[in-house]
Amino acid sequence: MKSFSDYRKYMTILKLDEAEIQSRRAFFTLTDEDLQRLASLRPFAEKVTEEVVEQFYSLLLAHPETRKFFEDDATIRRVKRTQREYFLGLFAGKCDREYVEDRLRVGAAHERIGLAPKWYLGAYRQYLHLILNALQAELKDEERVRAAFQSIQRIVFFDVSLAIDTYIAANAEALVRHQQAIRELSTPVIRVYDRILLLPLVGAIDSIRAEQIMESVLLHVVEAQAKCIIIDIAGVPVVDTRVADHLLKTTAAVRLLGAQTILTGITAQVARTMVQLGVDVSTMHTLSRLSDGIELALGMVGKAITTAAPPAPASPSAVTPPVVGGTS
Amino acid sequence: MIEEILATHELKLVTEDDVMAVRRRVREIAEMRKFDTFAIAAITTATSELARNVVVHGRGGTAKIEEISDGLRAGIRVVFTDEGPGIPDIARVMSGGYSTARSMGLGLSGSKRLVDDFDLESQVGVGTRVTVTKWKRF
Predict the structure, then answer these.
(1) Rounded distance between C-alpha atoms, residue B89 and residue B80, angstroms
(2) Of B40, B48, B96, which is closest to A278 when you measure between CB atoms?
(3) Are strands B74-82 and B127-135 parallel, antiparallel or unpaired?
(4) Residues of chain B with C-beta less than 8 angstroms from the C-beta of A207
(5) Is A190-300 in CATH node 1.20.1090.10?
């Protein structure tokens, strides 16, 4: 099941080993005594579960922003059942790996359905309020209520910390996935003609991308038995010494494979900046326009672009009269 | 000449992404202040070089971007500060072709040529501060 592996991986991402769980518990002052007290409240919990969960969902369903997450009666029945299990879980008197895993499942599920932390936190505040009411109604004794509620608060905040960390980890993960997707899109090597390749570079070139460009270029040069690769940098916002260095190294490697590099798309601003920086790109063929680069490349493989002969005019009057054979 | 600081932006410089964020910010400010395209390329590129120095050689630091005016012209000043190892031989790094890490060693000398004012302070074991200013042309 997908959700199973989904939340399990957060155990690893958040480094929730035994030591981390202990250190978290210590910071939330969630002691063994608290866990024992929670376990002793189990009969109370079983008695009030139904009531607390029903009240909680009537609050969520009354609010238009949270109601959106409960489309039909089947969903509501399912989440109420999960909620009852969750509620009783608070009074299990345990806070081990298994417990933490179960809590991550809750965080991951909320993240997956796109429930923003503000709704989660707001709803939890109401949840605590309902629990306090139930405690007051059932336990009567003010001191017992205070002690019980303090233990509940500790385990609840511990839970909330896990849920929020899951939200953050899930977002960070999405960001990494997007970066990977962009990187994969960012080095498209195109075969423009037999043995001529084109790499249009768009966007900033960081060191990871520079490595990728180098590898991608070399693989394609070998595969296409290219004589020449045109690198167009018109879409690169900043050409500094680092970028120039990468381009020169790529050129040197391409040359080892017996091919040549043509650098095109150099703007007036980039030309001026490179000269002021003192970058020497004399080992590369450099041209301003991509079209000039293509012409130069074609020349390297023994081809040329020529202007086609004008098409034969359509009007018969212009047709040269056939020359009748003379004396032979 | 009395200068007026119109706005200050302080950005951290720890990763390569920070380098891009700082130079993007500098470019945005230069564009907003209607610098010409050559000046925009120059200050953005100098920022890229110096910000990367902070990350690569200075073990991270900060960039403070100031939008300034001398009453007649708008300018951009960027102060790069790190608490890294410092530069033992400033004259040598400024001559170009000097490098302690893989690069072309043109970063500092090249940046100086790209800006109007360039100031480098460095103390071995304490850190390095580079201040560059680019003025908008009349």
Answers:
(1) 19
(2) B96
(3) antiparallel
(4) 16
(5) no
Q: What architecture does CATH give domain A2-184?
A: Orthogonal Bundle (1.10)
> Which residues in chain B have Cβ-Cβ distances shorter than 8 Å to A277?
45, 49, 106, 110-111, 113-114
Contact A110, A27 (CB under 8 A): no
- Listed by start position, the domains of chain B span 4-135
Do residue A273 and residue B41 have CB atoms under 8 angstroms apart?
A: yes
Task: Give the closest-approach CA distance of B91 to chain A in angstroms.
Answer: 17
Claim: this prediction has a pTM higher than 0.80: no
From the list B37, B40, B110, which residue is nearest A241 (CB)? B110
Does B103 sit within 8 Å of A245, measured CB to CB?
yes
ipTM value for the complex: 0.84
Instruction: Give exposure, A130-159, as e/b (b: 16+ Cβ within 10 Å).
Output: bbeebbeebbeeeeebebbbebbbbbbbbb
User: B4-135 maps to which CATH number?
Assistant: 3.30.565.10
Per-residue pLDDT of chain A (328 residues; tens, 9 = 90+): 344 456 778 888 888 888 899 999 999 999 999 999 999 999 999 999 999 999 999 888 888 888 888 888 888 888 899 889 889 999 999 888 888 988 888 888 888 888 888 888 988 898 899 999 999 998 888 899 999 999 999 999 999 999 899 888 888 888 888 877 777 777 789 999 999 999 999 888 887 888 888 999 999 999 999 999 999 999 998 999 889 989 999 999 999 999 999 999 999 999 999 999 888 888 889 999 999 999 999 999 999 888 888 877 666 555 555 555 544 4
A64 Cβ contact list (under 8 Å, min separation 6):
none
Q: Which residue of chain A is at minimal alpha-carbon distance from B44?
A: A238
